[in-house]
Amino acid sequence: MKTKISIALASILLLTTSCATVFTGSKQSVLIKSNPSGALIEVNGVEQGTTPANIELKKGFSGQIITLTKEGFKSHTFTPATTFNPVTVVNLLFLPGFIIDAATGAMMKYDPIFYEINLKPEDQQL
């Protein structure tokens, strides 16, 4: 009987650990639009598509670096804002889950999840 209770308790602990990682994942989709559309999207220097697009970003304490480029326009670089993911609070009773969420970045989330960037034309010189 004690073995069954121990197994049940261990299972509950394992299933409820790292709640933010389990429930919200370590990546998040962010919508990026530009005016004009069709700008190349790079995340940390890696091409991810053209605007408008939903881009999967790795969560963490600091956002990833996004650069938009389009011929005839100045490039625009920004870092999406991250905030605390409230699902992480469930882990306050179980420290290993909190540590896992911190290590995977799941204890943070992107907010806002929509960015519309107005690209500025390059100054034309004759």
From TrEMBL:
Keywords in alphabetical order: Signal
Domain of life from the UniProt record: Bacteria
Signal peptide: 1-20
PEGA domain residues: 29-75
Keyword Signal: yes
UniProt keyword Transit peptide, yes or no: no
PROSITE patterns: PROKAR_LIPOPROTEIN (PS51257)
Protein's name according to its UniProt entry: PEGA domain-containing protein
Organism: Sphingobacterium daejeonense
